[in-house]
Amino acid sequence: MDPRAIRKIAIITIGLCLGYTVTVLTRLPWWTLFFVAAVWIGVGLKLRWGQPANARYRKMWPWSLLPLSLWGVYVYLADSFGIVDLGAVFFHLQAGMAEHGGAGKMLTAVLYTLIMIGVLASVTWLSRHDQRWRLAERFFAILLLASNPLLFGLGQRSAAIVTDDGAWLDRRYKPPPAEALRDAPNLLLLYLESIERTYANDIFEDAYANLNALGERGAVFEGVRQMDNTGWTMAGMIASQCGVPLMPAGLLHDSQFDPLSKVVPGVDCLGDILAAQGYQLSYLGGASTQFAGKGLFYRGHQFNTVKGREELEPQLTDPEYVNSWGLYDDTLYDITADEIRRLNKENNGPWGVVSLNLAGHAPNGYPSQSCVEQQGEFDGQDILYSVECSTWLARDLIERLESEGLLDNTLVVVLSDHLTMRVSVWDQLTALDRDNTLIMLGDDIQPQRIRRDATMLDVFPTLLDALGFRLEGQRAGLGTSLFSDQRTLVEAHGIEVLNERLQEETALQHRLWEGISPQRREPDTPSSQEQTVETPADRADEVELIH
Fold first, then answer.
1. H helices present in 278-328, as ranges
2. Is the pTM of this model over 0.85?
3. C-alpha angle 475-529-175 in degrees, rounded to nearest 5
4. Domain boundaries in the chain?
5. Bias category Polar residues: which stretches (predicted)?
6. Does the pLDDT of residue 413 top 80, yes or no?
7. Alpha helices in 250-408 (DSSP H)
């Protein structure tokens, strides 16, 4: 090919990719990429990149190839999920990504890879044909390494190895209660995939209306924010059922990258506590239980029945009525209703059922056929259609069960597993103060709205409080019951401090993975924990939380 044509292709390729990166990492509209690309291409052609007057060819490999590749990975993650969570990346590598429904994501990953190969080839060609590029790209490589958020996050976790104190969160951990309940209520826990409370904002019209209607009958919690390591499905479920953030077992300092055999075995979670009370526990999810360790978590924390796509798909009357992730929500909720009927009929004590749906899954959702009949045709893109579908089906399930008398003496909890990832209304969502859905309905739950600065960690003790457990200091795990007047960790310290402390924490990580991750070597002389109490407010909080 003519070198002049190759030169133009190389400049245009880099320009378009640079423009696209700018639109992904900012809130600028999509057409901005063409403006950025045009400026880049104009400058490149004006300065005769790749064809200088005194051109000297040199066969070499640019220093920037690896830094560019790492940035390509980051842009892919940011484009796919909106927020790049290193904890999620490491946990999914460990817990397993088999049987996932992200076929579209795989195609996107292949496309990204091909484009990145084109970028790397373009940079290599320009560097070999233009001595100005050879000189500049070395400094560019250093800049790319220094600015990549992925490497910054890895550096923060590496620093935890030598931190003077990595037990700030662990000292605040409160074991959950163990006393017996009297007249223990049943529990129905409905996780609505990515259906955050932010959708209740008027700009999203009626997408959240069904949950607003449910909330008028019970307690609605506002201000349940998302701290680090709670922003994906397993992390959200563990935060709300164990009161701890999900710190992966193998994050740099212990080289534990073998497949997991257990998930957070070192802490007692909701399943452990309820099983000790004689509860019959069931988990039902539309997606595979093999993905991200869901089956390991629920079986390891004493659930009697754990069923996902593999177990439920054979029960379908229409085997073709599934999506790339698994069962549609209308099918899942029919099975959930049957499970509750079975548990009520057997009458072997109180029961607890946890259900995780799919309809709101980013980027476009998976609305059921019954929603198409209710709402009209789905355009395949509008996430608000899927949000409305998810909320309507959840409300319909609850009302059906109530009409059959199956929810007598039952605490019903409707909540999001985490904030949504990148969707069609991403720019509108991220411009608002975002929080998770948390609604509780029950005989002893008075209609009310409770506004607290909280996280998903606080859902755990709030659940236990609503079930009738007496909590020491109104706390369990790292959370505080939102029915109480005790301060949450966010109210005491702010979410930025919690996230900073989480980056330095090692003791809580070892607690979570006790028996799996390598244990810390105890120092020869006791270390003083007082060194970590840096302010009078922090010292006061230590006293308050311990006593």
1. 294-300, 309-312
2. no
3. 25
4. 3-159, 174-519
5. 525-534
6. yes
7. 270-276, 294-300, 309-312, 329-346, 369-375, 383-403
